[in-house]
Fold these 2 entries.
Entry 1:
Amino acid sequence: MKKKKWLGIALSAALVLGSLAACSGSKETSKSDGGKTQKITYWAPFSGADGPRMKNIVENYNKSQSKYNVDFQIIPQNDYYKTVDLAFSGQKNSPDVLIMHTDQLKNYADKNLLKDLGDTIAKTGVKEGDYSETAWKAGDINGKHYSIPLDIHPLILYYNKDLFKAAGLDPEKAPANREEFLSYAQKLTVPSKKQYGFVVPTLWPNQFIFPTILFQNGGGLMKDGKPNYNSPEAVEALTFYQDLIQKYKVSPANVQQDGEVTLFLQGKNAMHLNGPWMMEQWDKAGINYGVAAVPQLGTKQQAVYANGHNFVIPASVTDTKKLDGITDFLKFVAKNTMEWAKSGQAPASKAIYENSEEFKKMKQQPIVASEFEYSKFAPVIANWGQLSEPLWSEINLALLGKKDPQKALDDANKKAEQLLNK
Amino acid sequence: MKKSKWKSQLTSSLFVLPYLLLFIFFLLIPIGYGAWISLNNWDLLNPIHEFVGFKNYSKIFDSSSYLNDLFFEGLKNTIQFVVYSVPLLIVIGLGLALLVNALPRRIKGLFRTIYFIPYAVSVSVVAIIWLWILDTNSGLINQYLQNLNLPIIPWLTDMPWAWISLVIATLWWTIGFNMVIFINALNDVPEELYEAGALDGASRWQRFIYITLPSIKPTMLFVLITSTIASFNIYGQPFLMTRGGPGTSTKVLLMNIVDEAFKQRQLGNAAAMSLLMAFIMIIISVLQFRITNRKE
């Protein structure tokens, strides 16, 4: 039966680990090495439109020299960390270098699975100064340095220029703070046309939006290693966010998963907060959209929540020839990530985002890069995914009008504390 | 004589062999391995697996542990889905079978195919189709409701609508399977019984109650048990359509187990939860079997 297949997937995934570990690794081999070249296996979760971009970079690198051959393997995003975990736990078929998200670094660093790059970097000249400070600092965990940044992807603001014009607003000028954002949103809301100023999502990407408003209020998600979801700053942030639906009515109620994206695509949602990866979807749909830095929706400071892609090396890689090859490759990537920028992302390498004229002429990417300075990542704590789970489901309830912000955040905090004391 | 008997036994064993091998390698060994994992403190990232006996199981029953919430809240939601979906899966499946069977022979095949097609579609496609139909603000149904000046319905973001939506999507997806099974059973009911019933003056309804239902009882039991097991294994529909929301009201047990295994990397706990879930399913199936067969 069809649904039995789901049992199959779930249970066999949970149970048949051994065989999975053996076969899931070496699927997509792009090139086999011939002769004396040193082979370097490189894993990434770029199964979307960004995959071909990275493939081009790797192919260009392989053509540019003959000493090393990088074997680039894409693992579907949904299975990525599963596959990485199995490779790490089996210590076989494991890659020599791989992509890891910033919010995952701590989990692996704590278990001593990643190579401390302190010495490798000092020797070969992949230097701190060549990258965005924000991105580089994210690799400092437990007094060691574990990662080389590829990009930072913070939240950004997309808006519909046609709707701006129709509402008598300047389509080249996005709102910069809470007051402007609210007045724009109200002007852009036309109930008769079922058009809304800012459709509030109730699920994803609140994982990016809520922390952004909270950070802008000067608050934080954790305090002294404990969840701090119900601070006054957090309650203020969620109250404002909920008011967009209930008080200001610039958003419809009961928005479902991706409902705000559908409305943005249909030209019925004037402003939309999401990540840089949405660009290709808007381009394909042919919307006349603008991009801007996230307005300061909080009360204290400019800040934005972000995640990032980083290169890491498993601790088990000790062959110096391989390590030299990896460093050589990473140096090449830092100088040649223009190709990566084409997917909408802003590379964290200064050679691109500070010095490339071609990059500065792009529409979205320089705006993403302009947020680097005040980007903030998830709290550096093991199992942030699990610890944050109650927060997202309680925010969901608050935005659906089923709980008031204070109560929702109190409940989320209580559940998270229970998880921490397990 | 003796020799040929031995030969036929060998032949039949050979026929069983392929399934037996598949059963051993893809079911028995993984289940055994899973049972072993459930007795260890098995962190995916930790190469050392410490044997802890039944501690993972006792944690599930310890009310101060987060596993207790994870398991029993998930179980509560899963059971709700089973209770809502199984009666409909049977009644509507049988109803469709009766309808299709009453059609003229020439278009019977056509309608059987039409009702069966959704069953061949994958769950992600089912979820996308229903997300578009049910979208609160831009979905098909709510557009119609608005045109009729009726209030729109929050199909996926409010209770009990979220359950209703999940049950509707599941029915649309899997009802064809039950229907086909019922059609076969209906065809096996001897025509003479109906003729005799009609001669004795039994109405259509009486013929259905006293002839059709008792005749298809074994099939009914089969459909009941497979539907219950299938509904217990619900995962894809809430995972893709409601993401467990509103809050965690539709977060079913399998979603929690997968989270525990691959988000938290606690395979020991997840394996214990899976086996406990399987155990509950076995008990329910046995009970269903016993209760339905009691009278005979």
Entry 2:
Amino acid sequence: MGIDNAHYYGWDGKLHSPWWATLAIVRVALLQVFRRKSYWLVIALGIFQFLVFWVIIYALLQARLPADAQRELFKLFNFSPTVEPGKDNGYIEFMQRQSVVVMILLAFSGSLLVGADFRMKSLPFYLSRRVDRRHYIVGKLMAISVIISLLTTVPALLLFIEYGMLTSSLSYWTDNWNTVFSVLTYGATICVVLSIMLVTISAYLQRMAPIAITWSTIFVMLGLLAQYLRNATGNDNWALIDPWLDIRLVGKLCFGVFSDADGMERAISAAMILGTVCTVCLVALTHRVRAVDIVE
Amino acid sequence: MSLLRAWTTLLWLSFRRLLWSGSTLMVLLPFTACALFLIRRGFWKEANLFETFNDFSLFMMFVFASFVVPICAVAYATASIGGDREDRTLLFLLVRPVPRVLIFFAKFIATLPLVLGLVMGAFYLYCRLGGDIGRAAYPLYLPAIFYMSIAYVSLFHFFAVSFRHSTIIALIYALFMELLLGNMPGIVKRVAINYYGRSMMYAAGVPHGLDRPEAEWFEPISATTAALALVGITLAALLVALVVFQRREYTDLT
């Protein structure tokens, strides 16, 4: 059928900015993830941990124990509702505990959300509209950031709200307002770093198995090796090859809880490492996202 | 004769497809990271042999055997049948006049040399990089690494024939269940393949300087029992996978 017979006609109305398309990309990506039953298995692991902490906070606050006993009991569960000298608050610790679940979920999501666009050749369909590579990349980064936030930042904030609601006044919230700030900045660091790395790795590797192998090598194995090298050489800088530690240190740069002078220096080094990695990833990603595959 | 030719063709094709895949390239990443670690760590330079043997053994146990071996098995074992399921080419295999049992064994046998070759080759290389300590550790830990590798390959083949997204299930098992359950107190860790491999390594390594684990966290079983358990897991997983593959109707292929 000729194009004239199909009754296509031009759009006379005012066009929205193509940046609005990023929201559609986020919506579709979330639908893709949440309709897979096997992904819910991983999400359930993350929700389970959140529920455990929810119940612990509820049970310990309802028990009406003396403050010292309550603090000791919270310590028993490795949770501290307030910032202690040289330590992070319990909400940050909770977000770190979610890292395994986040890592596994992202290892699978990369192939579904980004890899499939390249493997199934659907990228040209995105880029044939007013959406260009900037909108595509930002949309995918936002989609992955939303998934990460749903497992880390949002539950941590809910726990903070729960703790405050179960006390007798607003003083917990007003005294610890900077906790919200620390959770948000740490969450933002996780989202930015993980989403950039995941989208880049997925754009190049495309299939689930290689993405998952690379992802787990970076986020599990480097952590183990960093620990061994630090213990063997006595040089704390080796710990910086662990990306989770780097993310944590960069998060700390924003809310400044350092136990010693070296801490700040290491955090700056971590920021430089992550900055370099993210820049390289973004350059590689921009090079990879193009409407036409170049075939040799 | 034609059946044998069909089988060997499938075996060779599967082997080549697995070998020249993105997984092979990516699996080299953890192997290279381990080699770089061993070069930087320099076990051959250490004077205290007992302490160095302990450090080398812990690296082999908690990094190589607990992470690299299962990851290598995931890369190939889930992709051998899982890759065909994902690409929907399994249908073309199943409609051929080749019994399903032979198709399964072709896939399994195509996977084994890749996993065993990479794992055993890397293990040999790492032991050479460990100097005298590594040479001493090689014969001690070789059986544990071998039995663990075949157990993982069998188990992940079972996942591949049973679940549609077998890579997800295998990775959750390898990264979450094994690491989490393998380090829990009590007997819950006995569901992990890792536990039996570590038991064999402790049984072989403790007389040579490997520190005995704390009893409340890890109580190893004897090397013979552990080896039998790993062989049992291998055979049981193979048998169940075979039965599932023989009887199952793969409706997701069309």
